[in-house]
Amino acid sequence: AQTVTQSQPEMSVQEAETVTLSCTYDTSESDYYLFWYKQPPSRQMILVIRQEAYKQQNATENRFSVNFQKAAKSFSLKISDSQLGDAAMYFCAYRSSNAGGTSYGKLTFGQGTILTVHP
Amino acid sequence: NAGVTQTPKFRVLKTGQSMTLLCAQDMNHEYMYWYRQDPGMGLRLIHYSVGEGTTAKGEVPDGYNVSRLKKQNFLLGLESAAPSQTSVYFCASSYRQGGHYEQYFGPGTRLTVT
To answer: What phi-psi label fits residue B51: left (phi over 0), alpha (psi between -120 and 50 degrees) or beta?
Structure first.
């Protein structure tokens, strides 16, 4: 079974600064997907960024980028130019590829990191 | 499109009572999921469904039952609620496009069992 670990329960950053959230995972699979989700106080789960394991290039979405280290099984999220609206709980998540036809899109989540943005 | 909706949004139950959470999606998605979110534990999969009339157990299925009689609805039942089932429950749905299963989440249901 796969596991996802977020070792930082809480992080804080000054507005306009950069912050990095950490995530490690454990799997014996070679093909999979990794995600970062944002959960603001509204509780809505919002997909921030997705990384496909077979792609060496790190994914980026505007101010959000990842550092994907497959050998180290590490998947960190960097938020640049932090904004007050970035304050939220962030979850790292793992999904098997469907090569075996049995993943059915199920996600395994980390424990979450609460990000506070100071003005 | 309403996307994924959940009913109710909040509920308080007494120990031993039963209830059903309703999840509905209007995107014609084949796959649906129920997760629970607890502090310090992230979201954990309770049950999922890969199509109308089919359900399967996830990571933490004990104490819950599910049904998918219609493609657009996925029901989560608690037959005899326990305080350990106090949690926020999320429903999600997805479709398969190649190797992708983009999950769409509902707004969550906060359940308190006293």
So the answer is: left
**What is the rounded distance in angstroms from the CA atom of residue B109 to the CA atom of residue B88?**
5
- pLDDT tens track for A14-57: 999 999 999 999 999 888 999 999 999 999 999 999 999 998 89
Query: Residue B48: which residues within 8 A CB-CB, separation 6 or more?
Result: A104, A106, B31, B32, B33, B34, B55, B56, B58
The dihedral formed by the CA atoms of A62, A64, A69 and A73, expressed in degrees to the nearest 10? -140
Burial A49-87 (b: 16+ CB within 10 A, else e): bbbbbeeeeebeeeebbbebeeeebebbbbbeebeeebb
Chain A positions touching B34 (Cβ under 8 A) are none
pLDDT of residue A26: 96
Q: How far is B112 from chain A (nearest CA, A)?
A: 16
| Amino acid letter, residue A64 | F
Segment B25-47 shows an average pLDDT of 94
- Taking an 8 Å cut-off on Cβ atoms, the answer to whether B45 and A106 are in contact is yes
